[in-house]
Amino acid sequence: MSTKSSPRAPQRSRTASPIRRERATDLRAAGSAAAPTFKPIHTRRTFEEICERIREQLALGVLKPGDKLPAERELAQQLGVSRNVLREALRSLEMAGVLRLQKGVKGGAFIQQGDTRRMNEVMRDMLSLGTISVRELSEARVHVLDLVVQLACANARRADLDALEANIERTVLATSEGRLLDRVECSREFYKLLAASTGNKVIAMIVDSVTEIHMRFVYAKVASSGVAMARLAEKRRQFLTALSARNAELAGRLLRSHLESVQRMLEQDPGAMSLHVALADVQPGMRR
Amino acid sequence: MSTKSSPRAPQRSRTASPIRRERATDLRAAGSAAAPTFKPIHTRRTFEEICERIREQLALGVLKPGDKLPAERELAQQLGVSRNVLREALRSLEMAGVLRLQKGVKGGAFIQQGDTRRMNEVMRDMLSLGTISVRELSEARVHVLDLVVQLACANARRADLDALEANIERTVLATSEGRLLDRVECSREFYKLLAASTGNKVIAMIVDSVTEIHMRFVYAKVASSGVAMARLAEKRRQFLTALSARNAELAGRLLRSHLESVQRMLEQDPGAMSLHVALADVQPGMRR
DNA sequence: ATTATTAAATGGATCACCCATTCAATGGAA
DNA sequence: TTCCATTGAATGGGTGATCCATTTAATAAT
Fold first, then answer.
1. What confidence score (pLDDT) does residue B275 get?
2. Theoretical Cys-Cys bridge with A88: which of A47, A53, A64, A178, CB 3.0 to 4.6 Å?
3. Which of A216, A217, A252 is CA-nearest to residue A144?
4. Of the candidates B126, B72, B116, which has an alpha carbon nearest to the alpha carbon of residue A129?
């Protein structure tokens, strides 16, 4: 589309066809008279339209990570909408991890590499809203991790195992220096590395999202009570040995047993398991 | 600030403490001098602050589904921000499925029951942005469904099995009447019901998110080529029988084999597997 | 050549409006 | 009284003008 080439895909005249207030006298003329359902009115709003168009360009491959959208003022004019409503759309896309907005000359709206942490937020919101329960989350985590162990045994590469080994070293260090909260952070990383070693980013994303929440509970528990899982590094070593030996059955058994003991630790004091404690504030490294 | 109570948690004077432009002369005074990392500047913007505060109230349980936020004009004043920037925040939260905005007197921003379809959007975005691949998604789906079968065998209730049975009936009908695309829709529903029968909404959400994308490919394939999976209802029946008999091993085997044959069908014509075809437009029922 | 200054482009935010929708209150007709 | 049409206020949806803060490239001064 663009004329003028410049180092980083300046994405000029994207010739966005105007949106222009089709005042809601629409009703969307049912088309095929198959289903007598009249639910989805909700009067199409312009910012939704804008988001959708941009996502469409994304799906079509016209927009790719690294590309820059036209400046707000210009794009607003191209679309025939006010700058304010365009910004609402851009904001939403930014929150969705699709865009990154950067100030200054040479700034603009840049398409991002997908941010896998977004799924964590979904989980957190679902938990906050009571759509899912902590119990469901823990249960799902156990099952998914069981799957992860199998996949990791099948697919983990040397580099993955080395990273896990290095993580265990850090855990040992944190333990010996009594840095309990850092040790929790190590655990979080351990599961992240384990998930990554499946070689499947979808699985990894899923594991991360359920683990992130879980670790908040652990963090809160450790921070408030000062208790800590005994023989953690030792158990990790055993597990890694089984994993390295591609012994899925043993590795799975070890991990399950560990998860159960963590669960018991958490459930000792049900009060500390409250959502609020875990979700309310934001620990360093726990968030973008 | 008005008193006056009305039926549905009018959520008056929430006494939101003002935000009020702390002009970015912040630098966030490192606190513990542990990590010499200086990455996360990105100048805290007001809409982020607002989103965070509302999510905080949610996590704290102060705000619950069904509650209504103060009117835009009022809330903006309470927070000490302009109405526009407040709207940017509300928009983002609405896109995130946390809020629903409703016009008219007695309208407002209502906290929603969590919308599990949000995870679908995350998957779609990740795919659009090239963060995950179709291959990873398919692979993850196979593994997750394997897990689902086990859980469904263990936990499915009578009502779940009946719902699956009814779904198969619809499939039979659609098949006999040659409504191929409706049959795809039935498949989508089948997996949704199967996922629900695990009794775990987290698992269900995950399965839905990977299945939704997958079904777009199937839909596109069927729509373009007119081919259709042979003996579909029959295979479903066999599977359901195994499930009802709580025979996880058999059910798993049947499903795996079916998934493989679907995969073969899709891969016959690699061109049709392009992302664009599947993600670009929005089929009825596929989206909110 | 190096450094400080300036100017322009861009996102961030505000203000003052106006429109469209919704719903309770009002009031007139049956 | 009961019912239905009217009306008006509250609310979200949207616009346009205007200013601020940040960033970067071009320019000027050293």
1. 74
2. A47
3. A252
4. B116
Of B106, B109, B117, B78, nearest to B92 by C-alpha is B109
Q: How far apart are CA A110 and CA A104, in angstroms?
A: 13
Tokens of A88: 């609402």
* Among candidate residues A103, A8, A120, the one with its CA nearest the CA of residue B41: A103
> Are residues B164 and B198 in contact, defined by beta-carbon separation less than 8 angstroms?
no
Regions in chain A scoring below 50 on pLDDT: 1-15, 21-41, 283-288
**The pLDDT value given to residue A102:** 95
Residue of B129, B139, B181 best to disrupt the A interface, most CBs of A under 10 A: B129
Per-residue tens of pLDDT for chain B, all 288 residues: 333 333 333 333 344 677 754 443 333 333 333 333 344 445 689 999 999 999 999 999 999 999 999 999 999 999 999 999 999 999 999 999 999 999 999 999 999 999 999 999 999 999 999 999 999 999 999 999 999 999 999 999 999 999 999 999 999 999 999 999 999 999 999 999 999 999 999 999 999 999 999 999 999 888 888 888 889 999 999 999 999 999 999 999 999 999 999 999 988 876 655 777 677 765 434 433
> CB-CB: which of B125, B139, B276 is closest to A61?
B276
Which residues 20-59 on B are within 7 A of strand C at the CB atom? 21, 45-47
B205–A130 CB contact, under 8 Å: no
Per-residue model confidence (pLDDT) at position B268: 81
The total number of residues written for chain A in this structure: 288
Sequence-distant (6+) residues with CB within 8 A of B145 are B191, B194, B207, B255, B259
Position A160: which residue type? D
Residue at the smallest CA–C1' distance to nucleotide C23: B105
Interface check for A91 against chain B (CB to CB < 8 A): the answer is yes
Set of chain A residues whose Cβ sits within 8 Å of the Cβ of B138: none
Q: Where are the alpha helices (DSSP H) in B177-284?
A: 180-196, 201-225, 232-244, 248-267, 275-279
Q: Which nucleotides of D are covered by protein (CB under 7 A)?
A: 8-18, 21-25
Q: How far is A137 from chain B (nearest CA, A)?
A: 6
- A242 Cβ contact partners less than 8 Å away, ≥ 6 residues apart: A250, A251, A254
Containing B111, the helix (H) or strand (E) segment is strand B108-111
Instruction: Copy the structure tokens of residue A124.
Output: 């957190």
